[in-house]
Amino acid sequence: MVNVTMTVNGQTASGEVEGRTLLSGFLRDNLGLTGTHIGCDTSQCGACVVHVNGKAVKSCTMLALEADGAEVGTIEGQAAADGTLNRIQQAFQDHHGLQCGFCTPGMVMSAAALLQDNPEPSEQEIREYLEGNLCRCTGYHNIVKAILAASGQPTETPLAAE
Predict the structure, then answer these.
(1) All domains in the chain, ordered by first residue
(2) Predicted local confidence at residue 157, as pLDDT
C-alpha cells in the first residue's frame, strides 16, 4: 500500500492505495465521490472524465499514484458551495441535455474542458470533442445545444437545424 495525496475540488485528500488502484476507484471508493461514473473500464465511454491539473482525463485509465500531488476536479466540484449549478450544468438542465444521467458527469466535465480551451466552439467542434463520450439516451442533439448555450452562442446553428 502506498499513500497518495492530492487536492480534490479544492480540498486536500489522502489515502492508502494499492499500486494498481485507478483514479476512478480512489475517487469513488476512498473519497466517496460517486459522481465519477464507471461505465466501461476500457476508456471507451467517458463517464469517468475528471480534470487533472486542468485537463480532461478518463479516470479509469489513470492510476491514483499518477495523480499524487495533482489538482483533481470532479463533477461534485462544479456546482457552487450552496448547490447552485454552474453555467454548463444549468444549460444541460435548461436544454434537456440528459435523460438517464449516467453519462452526464463525464459530459459536463468534458464540456468544461472544451469551453476552457475553446470558449466559442462550433457545433462540429463540440461533436468532435465529445467523440470520446458515449450517451445511449439523448442522441447528442440536446447535449450539443446545452454546450452551445453554455458558451453564450445561439442554440440553433445550421447543422442543428438540419
Answers:
(1) 2-76 (3.10.20.30), 87-150 (1.10.150.120)
(2) 52
